[in-house]
């Protein structure tokens, strides 16, 4: 066994004797850092959030907020973690600590009542506070009135200091109310030059550590390379692949899942590349959704429309496309979008690589053509991209919810004629599916109300929707047809304007 260690609030801490499935949340609390709380154990409340030093998008290092309740502590071997306790500056000679600017604003603006959720909010808020491209003023904005309420300026979901309120979308508060929390977020300024966490962003993040950690009958492995990873899969077919752990962590917490061999692939360099080639865009399977969003910066409009509707920022900071596709869930948000984009998957094994169209990948409920000795290395999106795209997620909440129906469109219209149509569907069959009949009804036809009405009737009959606690089968079918009408309405509005 190789010793595994995590740097927590600047202090190196051994992982032993914790089990490989022990979460970061339990690891921290067992060591007295009880600011990190368990609320839901599913990554939906944010009470457990902490900061992790990750490779940056605009600077060498980003301070990224993640759900400590989902991530195995062993996955942070060699990494740096900051908890809510580590944000304040300790006082000298017994004097009180100096609050972090985020903590200070939460205190003076009444952002905490019972305090249970507050440390999680603080960490998520601190992650946004340190975001390098946040368009904050050089001075702390003086935007509060006498009552301490921040005035709205422009976009209600972005503060006058550039603070993106969606960075707190994964944090819930049951008693304080969100207005004072928003006020605190909109009042923070830029980090000062002597802020050690701000200075840390200019240094490289910790390099991935090859990990072999065993306790009892369970082993956590982090291979050093893709070649080593695929050889592990060949030698140990029982191994479970883990990237962001946003799905696997729920299984561990809620269903008490315990595996003999866990293989982490989230830091493999070969799975962390994002390349824009002449014929396609290749996204590594272990690039997080937040990284994809910021690095592509709207280059793929359909993905840009997907990301804000995919869970919360806390989840997107860890979740990956490879993980979302690897689970094979029929209600995953990314498969319909990638189906509409005509994406293919690069599957790697010890025998080499093969490219599989995503439309041929799913074979049944949570089943696919991927063999046990294979992993998803990358997602390829062919270019040029379609001109007209849209992603419609039908759910009970606007954000951070599981879809009842998901529909993605990618359509090319030339001279008023539909030359190409790709439609991806989720939530209406045992697998994500392409709407082949509707695509055929559209292609070669004029983009008119009559064509859309006829195609919508076909679309309503696609898949095998079922009734459950989220929606009835009739509702799901109706929403399919309605989505096409909505797309047509938006395209005609765009043309007329």
From TrEMBL:
EC number(s) on file: 1.17.1.4
Give the residue range of the signal peptide: none
Write down what this protein is called.
Xanthine dehydrogenase small subunit
All copies of domain FAD-binding PCMH-type, residue ranges:
213-386
2Fe-2S ferredoxin-type domain location = 2-87
Which enzyme class, named as a word?
oxidoreductase
Stretches assigned to coiled coil:
none
Species name = Streptomyces candidus
Q: What Gene3D superfamilies does its record include?
A: 3.10.20.30, 3.30.465.10, [2Fe-2S]-binding domain, CO dehydrogenase flavoprotein, C-terminal domain, Uridine Diphospho-n-acetylenolpyruvylglucosamine Reductase, domain 2
Q: Recite the lineage of the species.
A: Bacteria, Bacillati, Actinomycetota, Actinomycetes, Kitasatosporales
Q: Where do the record's region annotations for Disordered lie?
A: 136-161, 192-215
Single GO molecular function = 2 iron, 2 sulfur cluster binding
Question: What are the protein's UniProt keywords?
Answer: FAD, Flavoprotein, Iron, Metal-binding, Oxidoreductase
